[in-house]
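Extended Data, panel c. Modelled sequence:
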Amino acid sequence: MSLPLLERAIHGDPITRFTSGDTFTMGGLVNLHIIPDAPPAPALIPHREPCPGEQYRFHFDMTKCIGCRCCEVACSEQNGTPADQKWRRVGEIEGGVYPFTQRFYLSMGCNHCTDAACLNGCPVEAYTKSPETGIVLHSADACIGCQYCTWNCPYGVPQYNPERGVVGKCDMCHNRLADGDAPACANACPQEAIQIEIVNIADWVADHSSANAPGLPSADHTVSTTRITLPGELGPELEKANHTRVHPEHPHWPLVFMLTLTQLSVGAFAGLALLRSARPLAAVAALLVAFISLGASTLHLGRPIYAYRALKMWRRSWLSREVLLFGLFAGSATAFAGATMLGLPRLAGIPTMLLGFAGITASAFIYLVPARPSWNNWHTLVDFHLTGLLLGSAFLRALGVEVPAGLIAGFATGQLLNQLLKLLRLMRSDEFELKASARLLSQDLERIFLARFALLVLGGIALTLAGYPIPAFLCALAGELTGRYLFFVSVVPRNMALPWASGRAA
């Protein structure tokens, strides 16, 4: 240290900066060398905007994250979300065998995927991907609260707000970015574990392996753009800390009734068309069931007054196609029932049947999404159609239409086999989500699952063959409603790792 600086230090004057190489000697006993200044920390946001073919993305450094959850708090304060909804979440990953045990944290918001599943499935175009920044934005004004995006996203990013009746999600604080400020989560992180980067989209799509990490679904599903820096040495036993805490999902009661009754009505009209029955009462009753079921579907929406918007994206969204096809089915069924009552030729019989089964097919494809593995298989398609055939024929027989009892029993047997094969497939799978669904059905939901089979055997086979059509129909209806309830509550969605104490399924 130079003599003037040393004199200032002795006299108590503040010294705000030492330069590299400054040394001083006091009485020949101490020789102090000041360490050079540390290099500047990397910027939290880029110094430029993305060029064409580029977009913003998150970079999360797992080696820095200490699990303090400052990012969660900052995100919630910035966006005013309810306490039980987090647009950015910190999960826990742990594993290993003593003495080599490991525990890491995983902070994730929206991944702003190049092939965003939330955007692809939305029936009202509430999602857009900014062509300038690549950020996936959500419009609360356009949203009708159908929650389809929450099923499609394999990371569980969109969060439904029941108080507002709409979905919300991380938008990378795009307004802050436009003003040159870092997103709230990145700004609040004391370790600077979260940063914003610019990525070349084509290069990233070609190789996005850096988006994969323990505790996350594969980036291949939607091509997540989040880059993750992993610790140097990871044990093979690492898994989600909450993997043992699997709980039933929400039952979605309006959809339970809508799906079951819509399928019943389609099956009934198919029976009336194929059996050439001229019973006006049966046709009117089937039509009434159709309108009740379609009305019940709007109760699932957070903003039912805007249900008409669901027709908008019929070229892309299976939910829009379902609404369109069942709307056409209702119109054709009305014409068919009217012709039956007036004794006119029922030319709409076959079109009504075809539109109805097309609507059931669209319903099934809504649930054939990779983010919900126990739904995403051919059993769902078979299940929905067999429900229509079974309940429709049992319904007509209860109203006096001559439907062969053996035909109804055959449909019930087919449904039994389909459900047993599905359970066997779930139990034998090596995939965590499928095994967890099997565990729910065989443990937590065991009594309801057995009751569903008992009702199906009793109503679809025993009482039908014994000649009790009305009790048989009621039992079969109860069995299929129970089955649709189990369909919703037993699904274990793909998701990122969550805290061990989380009440949500992994």
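The longest strand covers residues 89-97. This feature is highlighted in the accompanying rendering.
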